[in-house]
Design a protein that fits this description.
single chain, about 325 residues, 2 helices, 21 strands, about 45% strand
Length: about 325
């Protein structure tokens, strides 16, 4: 859900004031009206992916268009970083205090150096390094409005389980599962998973264990409309089975004390429901595995409310593990 830590220096956009002409034929020597501005900071975070040790992104430019149709571009100097170093509640700030004219902005996105180019984006797993192609060569962000003297903090969340695909031997990062959010309107989840669920799921689906026998224990987060296990669906680009696709996914891991936990960061404030499965390896994001595969959700982890302001909500799935955090 951190090899490059050197801060980047960003140059603010040049703001051009309009000189006003005086009346009666004489020059007006008064200073120009200052242009109302605010500042924007942007960070990136991710939901991690099993069996992947590195997802290296190379940012080329930040592009946005204001309400007057003027395009603003910020050179990112091919900033390179490993996305997997910034999981859950961690994030990597790539724009810090960029000054912009106050107003509305749309078509906001980062362009990237695709993996088919030298020194482009790449993924690393147990089979080595592979070029990573980005859909349309860009990471999209939501439109935003910047107020006068406002400092706006935005975070882009990249859910690799939903956005990373392997097609015809080529790794691709698609826009599905990528969103951005104002940091004032989001919160985080730290979840405790009942170890008995872990054991029961592995026992029930022993015949479906992946090669090597290591199950993919996963937490799936659903919108508030979901009230039980029967409504929980898998990752799918589209569906017609009446089920709900997850809005976020996180691997369930063990801490230093052997307790099972999961973390999800940068979620829009609101109510959600948690589902659990040990069959994450059977969920192919390119198809509906509820009808075309063997994927199943195992337990309903209950309802959870996420508060805004960047606060963390603790949640126990059934008995949890007693509140310990290793």
């Amino acid at each position: 859900m951190r090899p490059l830590t050197l801060p980047l220096a960003f140059l603010p956009f040049t703001l051009v004031g309009l000189m006003l002409s005086g009346c009666g034929g004489s020059d007006d020597t008064s200073p120009p009206e200052p242009l109302a501005t605010g500042t924007v900071s942007i960070a990136l975070s991710d939901s991690p992916m099993s069996q992947v040790s590195r997802v290296e992104l190379v940012l080329d430019k930040l592009v946005m268009t204001d309400a007057h149709g003027q395009r603003h571009t910020q050179d990112m100097a091919q900033h390179r970083f490993n996305l997997l170093d910034f999981q859950g509640m961690d994030s990597h700030r790539v724009i810090d205090g960029l000054e912009l004219p106050a107003g509305q902005y749309h078509d906001v996105h980062f362009t990237l150096v695709n993996g088919d180019q030298a020194q482009g984006c790449l993924i690393e797993n147990g089979q080595g390094q592979h070029p990573l192609m980005i859909e349309d060569g860009r990471l999209p962000m939501a439109n935003f409005t910047l107020g006068e003297h406002q400092h706006l903090n935005l975070t882009m969340e990249i859910d690799l389980y939903q956005s990373m695909h392997l097609s015809d031997g080529q790794y691709q990062l698609n826009h599905h599962g990528i969103y951005s959010i104002d940091d004032d309107t989001m919160g985080h989840i730290f979840g405790e998973m009942d170890p008995q669920w872990i054991a029961d799921c592995e026992t029930q689906y022993a015949a479906s264990a992946p090669e090597g026998g290591q199950f993919y224990h996963m937490a799936y987060l659903y919108p508030s409309e979901v009230t039980g296990l029967a409504q929980m669906g898998d990752i799918a680009q589209s569906r017609d089975d009446g089920l709900f696709s997850p809005v976020a996914i996180s691997p369930i891991r063990q801490d230093n004390n052997g307790n099972w936990f999961f973390a999800m960061g940068y979620l829009p404030a609101g109510n959600y429901r948690v589902g659990y499965t040990c069959l994450g390896h059977l969920d192919d994001p390119t198809q509906n595995d509820m009808t075309q595969g063997e994927f199943k959700l195992f337990e309903d982890g209950g309802e959870i409310g996420v508060e805004d302001g960047g606060r963390e909500t603790r949640h126990q799935c059934r008995g949890g593990h007693g509140g310990h955090r290793g």
